[in-house]
Amino acid sequence: MKDRMWCLRLSFKGSRDLRSNGSRSVLKDIMAFFAFHILFSALVLPLLVFYGPFENVKSAVVGTSWRTFRHQYLVRFFLTEEAILKIVGGGIKDGQYREIEPLSFPKNPSDKIEVYDIKGQYFSGKLMVVHDPTRVEVGYSSRIPKAGETTSEIARARGALAAINAGGFVDEGWSGTGGAPMGVIIHEGKVVYNQADREDIRQDIVAFTREGMLIVGMHTVEELKSYGVKEAVSFGPPLIVNGEKVIREGDGGWGIAPRTAIGQRENGEVLMLVIDGRNPASFGATLREVQDILYENGAVNAANLDGGSSTTMYYLGKVINKPSDKLGERAVPTAFLVMP
Questions:
Q1: Beta strands 214-219 and 203-209: pairing type?
Q2: Domain locations in the chain as residue ranges
Q3: CB 116 within 8 A of CB 126
Q4: By CB distance 3.0 to 4.6 Å, which of 90, 174, 280, 304 could disulfide with 252?
Q5: Which helix (H) or strand (E) holds 337?
Q6: Tens digit of pLDDT for each residue in 43-81?
Q7: How many CB atoms within 10 Å of residue 102?
């Protein structure tokens, strides 16, 4: 009887060992399977993206990596400088130097501000309609050029009802402080900041005249003064000029990212647009998608503003979009404000 019990225990132990060894073998096979496919994808996927037939995918990946600046090495490894510039050029150069045709607006515009949700296939955002264009002003950080401030801080300091981030900045040492603006800042008709230190050099401009007309494209400070510009920052490219879309081929060459843009209808109403990005609910948008949204909402002139982690919309005391920066809002040098 004892021998029989010992044999049973031995048989049970052997069976358990076999099952344990079998489980480990299956687990190893599964891990090897996944490791192979991860390695295979890591090697093959970049080749498909950069050298495959999917031009739209390549354009989106190259544009997104190139415009983040920190990740340019990703595309430099696979493509020549010439090939990269061809992709990120995006067919927008012909809109840079067009002269803006004058617009005339109603003398007594409404003080109404409307906010709408924007939905795309892979993104969401907010569209603000400001009926009186003369209420739009430039706000800027009180700590320029040492540091920027968040869009909401700039808005609250000025008592603004609404705001979006505006011009770009030089991110020195990748610190993200927003303190060194790119290009020009003009407020109340005075040049607050001019990176070029000259007034005869063309720069990317997004500006409003004293009558509230939006001016976009490449202009000198001298030209802005002659136009009667009251408020201005530097960024681009222009998206719509004199009622015509600028991007007619490709996606604009800047990839997919959070976006901020501004436009104006023929009656003077200002369109402020933000598209959220870099989260599962909203990946971001291309410049062409931003252009098309503004065009479909009646913009006759429009321009891209600083996007990415800077993208922020503020309204009645709070941020109403979902900035992609880990801290919630990124420090920026300037914002377009809607004053009471």
A1: antiparallel
A2: 2-89, 93-338
A3: yes
A4: 90
A5: strand 334-338
A6: 555 555 555 554 555 555 555 554 555 555 555 656 665
A7: 9
